[in-house]
Amino acid sequence: MARVVVTGAAGFLGSHCTRALLSRGHEVLAWTRPGAPLPDAAGRVERLELDLEAVRSPEGRATAAAALAAFSPEALVHLAWRGTRGADRGDVLQLRNVAVGTEVISLALAAGARRLVGVGSQAEYGRLDRPISEDDRPAPETLYGAAKLALGQLLLALGGRQGCSCAWARVFSLYGPGEKGPALVPDLVRALHAGRELALGRGEEVWDYLYVEDAAEALALLVERPAEGAFNVCSGIPVRIREVVEEIGRSVAPGARLAFGARPEVAGAPRHLVGRADRLRRAVDWSPRTTLSDGLARTIADLVGYAGRR
């Protein structure tokens, strides 16, 4: 079992990743914003409450270095990221994420970590109207995607120079318990449960939805096994957004009007975001365990306190 630093441990994917690591017997140093709630989980977890941007100052860097040295990590999972939604994806704050991430990686290496796992995004690829594999050339169309791509390349280069084992996990569309939004699944569930109408697009986009606990298991396996390079973390199953909406509608509010076409389409928005996870399956023997129907039922139960009507 390993001692693992997890940045962003109180976030959506970070909290599930922390639980997955603890359930597998690892020790975790959860690096969070001050006051952020930690997930309920059995196992040994320590905490570093420090805004990641503090590592760009001498005082903050010294605080982080001391905490990491005391923990003596064997691995780092870097999830923390600012500006993951909406207009923030085009904001120059994305450049700060690269600078901060590089500092965090350097601190982990200096503290003795020899396994690095970073979390990237499907946004690194840009738009492709077919299933995306790691062999496809990245062509990000947002600063968010470009920043993720840059940090992934830096992580692989920095770790490789130090003789470390390094993996970069490009995560596709996640959903599940704990997602705050704004995002389609939690926003729609809450609106229907409250009897409100949510303006929707036509719902013809084809996406790749992955249950968050399955993604967390993939990250835990990447910590444990010496897989190298970039990996897609996705279901590999194409699904129309309209089908997801209709499934939620049947469970939460049968007979409710679903306002397809009430929201204007976003010009240039991706219409097809589906990945291939063959490389990850071969490397760590991973595949999703949760069907879309089961995952949505669990998510609805978490959001509104009942399992929905099936």
Structure, explained:
This protein has 310 residues and is α/β, with parallel strands linked by helices. It folds into 2 domains: 3-173 and 210-233, NAD(P)-binding Rossmann-like Domain (Rossmann fold, 3-Layer(aba) Sandwich); 180-208 and 236-274 and 289-304, UDP-galactose 4-epimerase, domain 1 (Alpha-Beta Complex). Helix content is 38%, strand content 17%. The chain contains 9 helices and 11 strands. It has helices at 12-23, 58-71, 93-110, 143-161, 184-193, 212-224, 241-252, 278-284, 292-304, and strands spanning 3-7, 27-32, 45-49, 75-78, 115-121, 165-171, 173-175, 206-211, 229-233, 238-240, 272-273. The strands form 2 sheets. The protein has a 7-stranded parallel sheet with strand order 3-2-1-4-5-6-9, with helices on both faces. Strands 7, 8, 10 and 11 form a 4-stranded mixed sheet that branches. It is globular, with a radius of gyration of 19 Å. The N and C termini lie far apart (41 Å). The relative contact order is 0.13. The mean pLDDT is 94.
Describe the structure in brief.
The protein is 38% helix and 17% strand. The protein has 310 residues and is an alpha/beta fold. The strands form 2 sheets. Strands 3-2-1-4-5-6-9 form a 7-stranded parallel beta sheet, with helices on both faces. Strands 7, 8, 10 and 11 form a 4-stranded mixed beta sheet that branches.
Poorly predicted runs are: none
Task: State the CATH architecture of the largest domain.
Answer: 3-Layer(aba) Sandwich
CATH class of the largest domain: Alpha Beta
CATH superfamily of the largest domain: NAD(P)-binding Rossmann-like Domain
Indicate the CATH topology of the largest domain: Rossmann fold
Strand coverage percent? 15-25%
How many distinct beta strands?
11
- Series of secondary-structure elements, N-terminal to C-terminal: EHEEHEHEHEEHEHEEHEHH
Largest sheet, strands/sense/barrel: 7 strands, parallel
Indicate how many domains the architecture comprises.
2
Proportion of helical residues: 25-40%
Distance between the termini: 41 Å
Radius of gyration: 19 Å
Shape estimate: globular
By secondary-structure content and strand pairing, the structural class works out as alpha/beta
- Counting DSSP H or I runs of 4 or more residues, the number of helices is 9
Average pLDDT score: 94
Biggest sheet, spatial arrangement of strands? 3-2-1-4-5-6-9
